[in-house]
Amino acid sequence: MIMRYSQHLAGGHGIVWNVGEAPVDGATDFLFMAASAGLIKLGFTVGQSVRGIGFAAHLLTVLIIYWTNRRVHNGNISFSFLSGLYLAVGTGLSYVSAYFGTPFFALAAASTWALGLILMKEENPSFWLSIAFALSGLITGLIRPEGVILAALMLVAVVFMRGLNKSKMIVVAFGSVFLLIGGAYFLWRWNYFGYPLPNPFYKKGDGGWKWDSFQHSMWNALRLCLPMVIAFILGFRSNETFKRTVAHLVPILGFAIAFGLISDEMNYGARFQYAVVPIALMSWVPLIGSVNFEALKQSSVRERGVYLVMGAALSAGLIYYSWFQNCFLNLYQQACDRPYERDGRLEMAQMLADYRGKGYMIATTEAGLLPYYSGWDALDTWGLNDQFIAHNGSITVEYLDKYKPEIIMFHDYYSPLVPPKLTDANLAQRWFSMTILLKTYAEDNGYILAAVFGDSPYDTHYYYVRPGFEDSKRLVEQISKFRNYFYPTTGKRSINYAEFAEP
């Protein structure tokens, strides 16, 4: 989705989902989208710009972690290097591979926290250091909206550590930057998009507190940062380290808790919580105390050898644990080194790309591969990229009728062999009720069921084609006879269950 927005912005169409339509804030990674659009304007491809920014951000975050532990905390080289390596081999590059802007957000979070840690240590920090901290926090918030929450939590941690009286200049600088520059941006985006908050928030943030999202978020944060938990537990051992431990926990726990406000959908590889990893890696060293390496030098050769082997084994275990998180990027992952199986939606989109430029529209629940690689106008029926649906709460028949899409495609858990059960409990589920509306609309308006792809009749992709337009018969034939539709959850070649539908 980010790539689609970046491409349209670079092409001079504004921040739009479909060219020619009103702006929509579906790309919540605002600065990442703007940066990638800038690189596209310079001649880079969309993929090169998105992955290039992510890869560079990942490397810079590793360096910041090492520098912070080595210079700000005066940690030894081994601990500092291990901290950077832990991040380097973790899930960061998987986000880059999947075209997410997560490492860019993590870089901004790490930069802000590094400046916050310096402010905690400086007795009389300069005004410009306070401004730098505030600006870095603002950038974090401009990359992703939850960055405002994270930056505010970092400010709370700094104030808690220094005390309010010694933090007045920091608070004033932070408030001034966010009020003046951040306020100007907020007013601009409200005017530009027509609503104050990012579009997905209206879809994902309705319904109040979400305990399932909260639990997932806390588990993700714990899983990603588990080795550092020992250091934080040790931090409570004395009054000297207690206060610092609490301060360092504020942005980590606070940020993880905040995700109880929105639904957990699209949280690929715990990317929503990933920003707490560099924060934890930049916080654990001062909590464990100093290691007396001089005493080790005075020990026997045998003792030094044992300690060396033990340290190497522990380090290897920590690095393996970090790499192992790549095995949990999505629920249906088959292998640690391959988060995605072959995906028929990509091959289908590439086939549909032959019809781009004809003004055709696809209404789909899968607003990623299909819209971007087909180049078609797209109606995101779930609403993350559609202002009306997000604010209305759901799609309607009248809204579908406004567009009369040439193709209706949706993903659900039924098929002609396993018909949907229209019980009140099932219809109360928003996704199920949405797909039933799409299915009913297609059938009531004479759409042709071209395919129901799946490797199981309990998990399928429906494709309906509207009759009567220039390429409708050809599209029905191509989709119905499509043989390279590999189902994304298993990578297996799909069966077209539409062949079992009643005539």
Key descriptive features of the protein:
503 residues; alpha/beta; six-stranded mixed sheet; 6 strands; 6% strand
Distance between the termini: 37 Å
What's the number of structural domains? Answer: 2
- In terms of structural class, how would the helical and strand content be classed? alpha/beta
Average the pLDDT over all residues and give the rounded result: 93
Structure description:
The chain is an alpha/beta fold and 503 residues long. It folds into two domains: 2-328, no CATH class; 344-500, no CATH class. The protein has 22 helices and six strands. Strand 4 and strand 5 (459-465) form a beta hairpin. The two termini are 37 Å apart.
Question: Can you summarize this structure?
Answer:
This protein has 503 residues and is an alpha/beta fold. The protein has helices spanning 2-10, 30-41, 46-72, 77-88, 92-97, 102-121, 127-143, 146-162, 168-193, 199-204, 211-234, 239-258, 276-281, 293-297, 301-324, 344-352, 369-374, 387-392, 397-403, 424-427, 430-444, 472-480; strands at residues 361-364, 377-380, 407-412, 448-456, 459-465, 495-496. It is built from 22 helices and 6 strands.
